[in-house]
User: Fold S-methyl-5-thioribose kinase from Hoeflea poritis.
Amino acid sequence: SPSAEYKALSVETLPARLGGIDAITSGVGADPSQWSVQEVGDGNLNLVFIVSGPIGSVIVKQALPYVRLVGDSWPLPLYRAYYEYHALTRQAARAPGSVPSVLHFDEDQALIVMEFLQPHVILRRKLINGERVEGLAAFLGEFCARTAFRGSELSMASADKKSDVSLFAGNVEIPAITEALVFTDPYYDAEMNNHTKGLEPVVSALRGDVPLKVKVQQMLQSFASNTETMVHGDLHSGSIMSTPSSSRIIDPEFVQYGPMGFDIGMLCANFLMAYFSQPAHRGADAETYQGWILSVIEETCAVFEAEFRRLWASERTGMLYPAALFEDQGQDSVPACDAVLAGIWRDAWCVCGIEMHRRCLSLAHNADFEEIGDMTVRARLEARNLMLGADLIRMCDNLSGAGAVCDMARDFN
Ligand code: ADP
Ligand code: MG
Ligand code: MG
Ligand code: MG
Assistant:
């Protein structure tokens, strides 16, 4: 389609403006006057439309030139759609079947047309409702391991990986949100912060803890300068859509090259927050479901390890840890894999603790806690979450694994 000046779509203008795009007409129907359009964006940043017609439905996601959550006082570059598009194609190649397929991309309009996932529901909603998803841990563990391994120089040719790093290095403003909201704001009195009344003693303990803040800043330095693999960058339970038995990952606009433990660490934090919030949503019945959530964390991490080790043994084609240094000399490379995994878990648990902090203390909170109406209950549950987060950051070098983390979570009840 010819290049045209960016203009935000609306429910009213979408059929006329996108009616000539084959990828949409072939998925929805040739006559745009028969399309029905619904705006469903529940995220903080973008417009998302479901476009339906006689043949079927597609999703149209369009970036807005500002942060939707805040308004046009906070501008944000449209180029993030370009990075989201390139992230989706790489995730589809590295972890087949894990993301919606892309049907069309228009860089000028900052829009992506993609497969409509149905009857998928955002996982965070399912977790609040107490619903289980079969195969969730295997899906998530494999997604994180495959994207981490196959996006790194354990697997990729260095020239390809370096050119990818340089492509995604242009995504500056979006990771900057993470650098501020996730890694920095929770630990000082930043302007956009807010937290539940009653948390003040825990908050001031965190801000008074210099060694903890040093560890968080070390992790930020690593996030900003360690380009070991392509990370999703925003892998919380609102970026996962599930049916009772299948799941997909969406919304990788925060993509960048970063530490291999970043995505799985953020993911585990969101399960831990679901865990801590459950007593307010399930009451006396919470315990069984909480046990399921912890089992998902343990199994996701176990699958991640197993899949990473499998890829190490079968797909180690990059310049790192070459067979010439190990297998070709009749030696075992398992100790090397152990060491790489230890570094991944160290970063993962540190990121996990930081994510647990920022969701209660800085700008963008999560519905798991936000939907708790009783502020006293909410403060008590959020305090547990903040304290475990601090323990994970402090102990990230010495944790024996997800089982130990889940035991620590249980100890807060
Ligand atoms: P944002 O970047 O603004 O957070 P998301 O990509 O997370 O936007 O999409 C916002 C919402 O739109 C999701 O929470 C989900 O409900 C819906 N959505 C997005 N992509 C799809 C899809 N491929 N299929 C079905 N629903 C989708
Ligand atoms: Mg989103
Ligand atoms: Mg969002
Ligand atoms: Mg997003």
Observations:
- The two ends are 57 Å apart (CA to CA).
- Residues 286-314 form the longest helix (29 residues).
